[in-house]
Amino acid sequence: MNVTISLQTLLIAILIIAATIVLILLAILIAKLFPTIRKVNDVLDDAKQVSAFAAKETGRADGIITGMGDSVSAIASNLKANKNTIKNLSSLVGAATSIIGVAKATGAAGAKKEAKAKKETK
């Protein structure tokens, strides 16, 4: 009994077997891919929650920083105003000191003149 197989039939059989093996491997790969996809989905959901929380806290921190900046500006303005007030008070005290100095000098000169006048009249 002679069985003849043509080369074309042999190649088709090999291709069918190879395609079947590839399909089985592809099915196994897809089956292993589903748990990985679920884990990635969980990670992305967690990342979304973390991002939302971070955005909320960043907005809150921004408000705090803005408030602190306004407070520091107000304090700086008050210090500048106090600096000018202190400078003006210093000038006023200096002027008063000068007036007192002049009055003392005038009083001392007047006292010397009176003393000299008394000596001359004696």
Would you mind describing this structure in some detail?
It is a single chain. This protein has 122 residues and is an all-alpha fold. Helices cover 94% and strands 0% of the residues. The protein has 1 helix and no strands. The longest helix has 115 residues, at 7-121. The radius of gyration is 51 Å and the shape is rod-shaped. The chain starts with 6 loop residues before the first helix and ends with a helix. The relative contact order is 0.03. The mean pLDDT is 82.
Global mean pLDDT: 82
The biggest beta sheet reads: none
Radius of gyration: 51 Å
Beta content: under 5%
The helicity comes to over 70%
The helix/strand order is H
Q: What is the general shape? A: rod-shaped
The beta-strand count equals: 0
**N-to-C terminal Cα separation, in Å?**
176 Å
Poorly predicted runs of 5 or more residues:
none
Helical/strand content category? mainly alpha
How many helices does DSSP assign? 1
